[in-house]
């Protein structure tokens, strides 16, 4: 172990000791950003960058378990990503499939897909469905894998599902308009039945949500980290939790 690693380990343990886990977030959303830029800086290919990012996920989930987090939502592939060249998109989908299958195979975490299935290739759909089925009764951390996800698309899908449900009941548009409130929408989101994220972390230095969990993050705290996702360390995670704990959450203006 070199001096830098020793100092990093000591600092990480110091930050961890000072955290009050009881006051920490229960649901964390993570925008895993910076794989391609990390790869470029390391003179690697985009595919290698995506693979390095996928390899980091299990570490993050382990840190979440240690700090009392109960739900993690990982944004792995947005609807906008389908505009990427097939030479990059196809390997990326394969890496995501392997990552999701690997999470399920551990038997430690309950995997749940959030996103639009219709946009995904048959193989990706099959992997996501199998991971959900295989981990349905797992009592561990709930891991939402956002694949083919867009915040606006989620809200549109929720409204569409709500309309179909009430049409099946024979409810008129006028009657629905009279009773419609925010809870009706929430009950049809991809994350229905789950708590909203307390904290949203984005790596790579970008300070925007890009449509991530638009509805659910209305009262979330945000933490923007400069480091690229494949280089995200436990101390970076602990700093995010420390920053969250230092804030006074306000619901409203």
Automatic annotation (TrEMBL):
One of its GO terms (molecular function) is ditrans,polycis-polyprenyl diphosphate synthase [(2E,6E)-farnesyl diphosphate specific] activity. Keywords: Magnesium, Metal-binding, Transferase. The active site is at residues 33, 81. HAMAP family: ISPT (MF_01139). Homodimer. Its cofactor is Mg(2+). One of its GO terms (biological process) is polyprenol biosynthetic process. The gene is uppS. It holds the Pfam family Prenyltransf. Mg(2+) binds at residues 33, 221. The keyword Transferase applies. GO terms for cellular component: plasma membrane. Catalyzes the condensation of isopentenyl diphosphate (IPP) with allylic pyrophosphates generating different type of terpenoids. Belongs to the UPP synthase family. Z-FPP synthase subfamily. InterPro entries: UPP_synth-like, UPP_synth-like_CS, UPP_synth-like_sf. SUPFAM superfamilies: Undecaprenyl diphosphate synthase. Substrate binds at residues 34-38, 50, 78-80, 82, 84, 202, 208-210. This is Isoprenyl transferase. It comes from Actinacidiphila cocklensis.
């Amino acid at each position: 172990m070199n001096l830098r690693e020793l100092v990093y380990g000591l600092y990480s343990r110091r930050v961890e000791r000072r955290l009050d886990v009881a006051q920490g977030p229960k649901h964390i959303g993570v925008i895993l950003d910076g794989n391609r830029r990390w790869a470029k800086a390391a003179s690697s290919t985009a595919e290698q960058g995506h693979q390095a990012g996928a390899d980091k996920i299990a570490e993050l989930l382990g840190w979440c378990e240690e700090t009392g987090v109960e739900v993690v939502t990982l944004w792995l592939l947005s609807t906008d990503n389908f505009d990427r060249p097939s030479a990059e998109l196809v390997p990326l989908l394969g890496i995501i499939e392997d990552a999701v299958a690997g999470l399920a195979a551990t038997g430690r975490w309950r995997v749940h897909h959030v996103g639009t299935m219709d946009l995904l290739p048959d193989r990706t759909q099959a992997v996501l469905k199998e991971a959900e089925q295989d981990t349905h009764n797992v009592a561990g951390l709930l891991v939402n894998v956002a694949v083919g996800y867009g915040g606006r698309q989620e809200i549109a899908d929720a409204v569409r599902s709500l309309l179909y449900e009430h049409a099946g009941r024979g409810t008129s548009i006028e009657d629905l308009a009279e009773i419609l409130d925010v809870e009706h929408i929430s009950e049809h989101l991809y994350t229905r039945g789950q708590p909203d994220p307390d904290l949203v972390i984005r790596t790579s230095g970008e300070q925007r949500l890009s449509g991530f969990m638009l509805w659910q993050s209305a009262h979330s705290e945000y933490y923007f980290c400069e480091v690229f996702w494949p280089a995200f360390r436990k101390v970076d995670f602990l700093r995010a939790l420390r920053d969250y704990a230092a804030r006074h959450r306000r619901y409203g203006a």
